[in-house]
C-alpha cells in the first residue's frame, strides 16, 4: 500500500507578550520593515531594516512602574543577557549586540522568539528553563540600541531569518498571532490552545507510506515524548500502528534529506508519556527501529525532525511473525485483518518463545529521563514490551 499524506503547515501561535495586567499599557511603535520602510499593512509604521515589532508602554515612567514582558508561547530558554545599562536614548548603547538585555525562546515548531531591550536585572529566566505561555520573562526597558523604553519582539524562522508575526497585504501569511488584532492595535493577549494529538494515518504490517514531517503537532515545549510533543525537534508526523500477532516488527525511515528520528510510543495520549523505543541515527541516515509488538496494541510511530529538520521520507513497516497454530483443533481462518502467510508451519513456538532480547527501553534516553518511567503506567508499559537484542 502506498499512501500520500496531505501536508499541512501548522505552527506555534503567539499571545501578545505581556501579562494580562500590563497588556493595556502597550501599543505598537514600529513593525518589521518589508522593504522601503513599509510595514505588513503597506503603512509606514516601521523604519529601514527593522526586523522585529516594537511595542511601547509609557516611556521611562512606564518602565519605572514596571511593564511585564511574558512568553508569547511555551518554549525553552536558549539565550539570555542581563546587566546592561537600560536608560538608553541615543539608539546606540553598548551591550547584548544591540539587543541589550534579552531572552530568546525556542518553540516546539522550531521557531525562536526574541524579547529585547529589557530593563536591567529584570530577566527572570535562565538558559534551559522551559516556560509556559504567559510566563514572566522580564520587564520592558531601553537597553542596547534603543531610543526609548519599548519591547522589541522578533520571530526568527527555521532558517534563522527574521519573520513577521503579522499578516497583511504587504507582508506574508499566515499570521503567527492567535488573534492578530487591527493595524496599529494590539494582538490578543490569549495563549494558543494545545493542539490536537491526531496521528495522520494508520499503518499495519507491510505498509509503505510516503510523507513529510512539515508541521503537524509540536504543541508543547516540555521535554515530552507524546505524539505531538517533541521539543527541540520541531516538526513531526505521527502514525498509529497495530498488528494482530505478537511478533517482531521492524520500521524503517528512508529517503531522508535531513536528520529525522523515529520514536515508538505506547499510546496516542498527549501527556508526554510512553516512549518505548527510538532510533536516532545522525544526519540524514536511514533510521530503523525494531521492537516486539503485542497483538492488538495500538502503537504510535513518530517521525521527528531534529532541531527543526524537515524532510520527505518513506516509512515502511515489516513484520516477521507467523500466524499461531493450535495443533489440538483445526486451524482457524486468519482474521480478516491478518496477512496470508501461506501454508502454516507444522509447529511453531508460541510467540513469546521467539523473544530472546532484553526488556526495556531502546534509546529513548537520548532525552532526559521522563517522570513517566517511574509511574505505574510507565512501568507496566516497559514490562509489556519485549525487545530484540541489538
Ligand atoms: Zn525593534
How would you characterize this protein structure?
The protein has 390 residues and is mainly beta. It folds into 3 domains: 23-163, Glucose Permease (Domain IIA); 199-319, Jelly Rolls, CATH 2.60.120.380; 352-390, no CATH class. Helix content is 5%, strand content 26%. It has helices at 20-23, 59-65, 376-384, and strands spanning 2-4, 27-30, 53-56, 68-70, 75-81, 101-106, 112-118, 130-131, 136-139, 151-156, 162-163, 201-203, 208-212, 236-241, 247-254, 260-265, 275-279, 287-293, 299-305, 312-319. The strands form 4 sheets. Strands 2, 3, 5, 6, 7, 8, 10 and 11 form an 8-stranded antiparallel sheet that branches. Strand 10 (151-156) and strand 11 form a beta hairpin. It is elongated. The protein starts with a strand and ends in a 6-residue tail after the last helix. Bound molecules: zinc ion. Zinc ion binds at residues 30, 50, 52, 54, 152.
Short summary:
The chain has helices at residues 20-23, 59-65, 376-384, and strands at 2-4, 27-30, 53-56, 68-70, 75-81, 101-106, 112-118, 130-131, 136-139, 151-156, 162-163, 201-203, 208-212, 236-241, 247-254, 260-265, 275-279, 287-293, 299-305, 312-319.
